[in-house]
Design brief:
By secondary structure, this protein is α+β, with helices and mostly antiparallel strands. About 65% of the residues lie in helices and about 15% in strands. It folds into two domains: about 10-255; about 330-505, Nucleotide cyclase, GGDEF domain (Alpha-Beta Plaits), CATH 3.30.70.1230.
Length: about 500
Amino acid sequence: MSVARPLGWLVPRPDESGAALVRRTAVSLVISLSVANLIGAAATYAIGQFVLGFPDVDDPSEARLANLIAFGVYMLISVPLGAWWALRRARPARDWLREDRVPTAEERRLALRAPGSIVFVHVVIWSLAALVFGLLNATYSVELGRRVALTVLFGGLTTCAVVYLVSERLLRGGAARALTGAGEDRRLAPGIKTRTFLAWVLGTAVPMLGLGLVAISALTEGDFTRNQLAIAVLSLGGVALLAGLLVSMLSARAVADPVVSVRKAMERVEEGHLDVEVPVYDGSEVGQLQAGFNRMVDGLRERERIQDLFGRQVGEDVARAALEQDVELGGETREVSVLFVDIVGSTRLASERPASEVVDMLNRFFGVVVEVVRKHDGWVNKFEGDAALAVFGAPVPLSDHAGQALAAARELHERLREVDEVEAGIGVSSGEVVAGNVGSEHRFEYTVIGDPVNEAARLTELAKERGGVLASSAALDAAEDGEAANWEFDGEVSLRGRGRKTRLAVPT
């Protein structure tokens, strides 16, 4: 079964071990989250040191140096500590992956909530940073300490939003395996509305709130010069635009990627490929969409399998007509041709040979019959022990049903010589029959009833005695000249159960 993989390496390969997936995800997480935190911290430090200034501080250079040293030390400690702590908190969600086993319900829940666990670690680290740097700068000025604490807090919230979206993306491999065969039809993670709202709050509202606080401070306390206020507005506005764009893009991709995977899989289904499956790696409504698509394709595969089996049982044309139209008991009058073929001496064969050999011989015999009849646009209506009844002209009309039946009879006579130790009699007749569903509402079959069926069966009995092919004059008269030229009349006989004589025709 093929898997739609629009996300490339983010979706686990079917042959990838759980331990390999854990290692690959851990390396990606450490690198990506470290970079996100370093960028967020650098931007926050630059805004605090060079944009907001040092109000009420006699010696800004001393405060700037102290903040630089504290920034370096805190980053050296917090980045590796945060990576270790985040991986440790995610450990219960990945132990089952290392062991390559199906997760329990609790392990599945932890795996889907792993991005939230990672964000919790970063919330703690950034909150501690706001406290540390706020107290450090408060020793120089209470106003400076307040500004720095708020700046770090706002920068941390925006960075945490990025961390959540990046973690959710990188952890999709484990989520896909956690949701495989989950059999649940409820959300196991925050929904799209919640994610979108949080992305807006943390990516746009928080930076803009910081910009508003600068404006309020400038209006109420007047501690910004005109140039400082312009620089602060431009800097914070630019950061808000970039942060909002980044968070919005990541949030949009979190929804777009699974939708794209479903769309690509639907294109393959439209092309007739039902062996496609979409990885389910999201616990929200999007994951329900992915799982729903897979259930739909499972249903289509089951429908196709049933239709195929149905077609093999009753014939493709009959199966198609039954699926496209309302099935009712009864029939309609049709002009058709009937071909009957029966093995000579089948009773003797069954008594002299093992049952397995007889079945094998019958399967090869019927295989040739079905192949030849289908080649000439007919269908095998039924198998009767060692005989077969084929119909030409129903349920799909044929302009030259008699010619097709006669041609099939001639070719079948030659082809059956390929089946060892098999001799068969073949009879062909044409005429008016009733074609339709016969039986009850609970069990019925599509068949044809009429004099041509009886006549073909009697001709087959006679052909078994003569060792060849016989057709009625009615079939020859109904055939077009091209096929009729391959036959000639060969006297008249009184067939069993018929009041009038039948004029015979044989291949020339």
